[in-house]
């Protein structure tokens, strides 16, 4: 029986979560795909620090050992930042590898280019993990909302900023205190700029825009305001009016024009995002036929992100209508 051979680029929180999920759920994955799954290679910057951490997998810093290995079928990419991830994925696609990525910054910049390259090479790109952790928004839009026209999206796309705002509101904590606790719990990085200033949510919103509307707004025209200016007093004031401050990513499509923003918004208790607290993410859509739809789930972390990537893997290999060498079914429209 053929074994599906996969490689993992990056072995931090997300990459190790993918590896652990594959190991723990071998029987389930084999039942879905029809094949046993083997992690054949893992790419890291310093291989000497990761020896004996991943069974029989080759630990390497050389991308060519993965891209040029004809036995490897799928590459999971979990590297932080635009480079070298973009260059690595281009190389793998050109060598005929299917790609599954969790890299929102890289994909916001290069998703369209990679998708077109994948189509030319008859391989698939899965990118569910780039937008909202474990929430299956990509597959929902691609497979379940084909006829519906989505006119507006409002979302909480960053669990770190949502946790901080929740902590400030519930415990009347200062921003600095809430941020410090988020860092101690592993929700925030030592440098939390991407989260608290809205860059992380911005990249995710651009990916969703490309997916839903087949284009992005002009980046320089997107309003982006972080949460560093929010105070406990502001939370108290809004609570008196039955409102809560949320860091909202919003995109609307009107008269063939896209407008977008990421900024703190005081939402009323009737709003679908009012009750989304802690590290949870949520996406609220307005569709012309279906009407309102809200998806809620864990927005970050090892297992939610790994879950999204493994589900992409199963969409590639686990459906009878998908041939042995599937084309770019998960790509942008």
UniProtKB/TrEMBL annotation:
Q: What is its EC number?
A: 1.1.1.3
Q: What's this protein's family per the entry?
A: Belongs to the homoserine dehydrogenase family.
> Could you identify this protein by its name?
Homoserine dehydrogenase
Q: Which PROSITE patterns match?
A: HOMOSER_DHGENASE (PS01042)
The active-site annotation reads: 204
- Pfam families noted in UniProt: Homoserine_dh (PF00742), NAD_binding_3 (PF03447)
Task: Please state every residue range assigned to the domain named Aspartate/homoserine dehydrogenase NAD-binding.
Answer: 10-128
Which taxonomic lineage is given here? Bacteria, Bacillati, Bacillota, Bacilli, Bacillales
Q: Keywords for this entry?
A: Amino-acid biosynthesis, Methionine biosynthesis, NADP, Oxidoreductase, Sodium, Threonine biosynthesis
MF terms from GO for this chain are: homoserine dehydrogenase activity; NADP binding
- Recorded source organism is Lentibacillus populi
Give a yes or no for keyword rRNA-binding in this entry. Answer: no
| Domain of life, source organism | Bacteria
Q: Any stretches that span the bilayer, and where are they?
A: none
- In this chain, L-homoserine is annotated as bound at 189
Listed GO biological process terms? methionine biosynthetic process; threonine biosynthetic process
InterPro entries for the chain: Asp/hSer_DH_NAD-bd (IPR005106), HDH_cat (IPR001342), HDH_CS (IPR019811), HDH_short (IPR022697), NAD(P)-bd_dom_sf (IPR036291)
Q: Which residues bind NADP(+)?
A: 10-15
Catalytic activities: L-homoserine + NADP(+) = L-aspartate 4-semialdehyde + NADPH + H(+)
Sequence positions that bind NADPH: 104
Residue intervals of the Homoserine dehydrogenase catalytic domain: 136-313
**SUPFAM superfamilies membership:** Glyceraldehyde-3-phosphate dehydrogenase-like, C-terminal domain, NAD(P)-binding Rossmann-fold domains
Q: Pathway involvement?
A: Amino-acid biosynthesis; L-methionine biosynthesis via de novo pathway; L-homoserine from L-aspartate: step 3/3; Amino-acid biosynthesis; L-threonine biosynthesis; L-threonine from L-aspartate: step 3/5
| Amino-acid biosynthesis recorded as keyword | yes
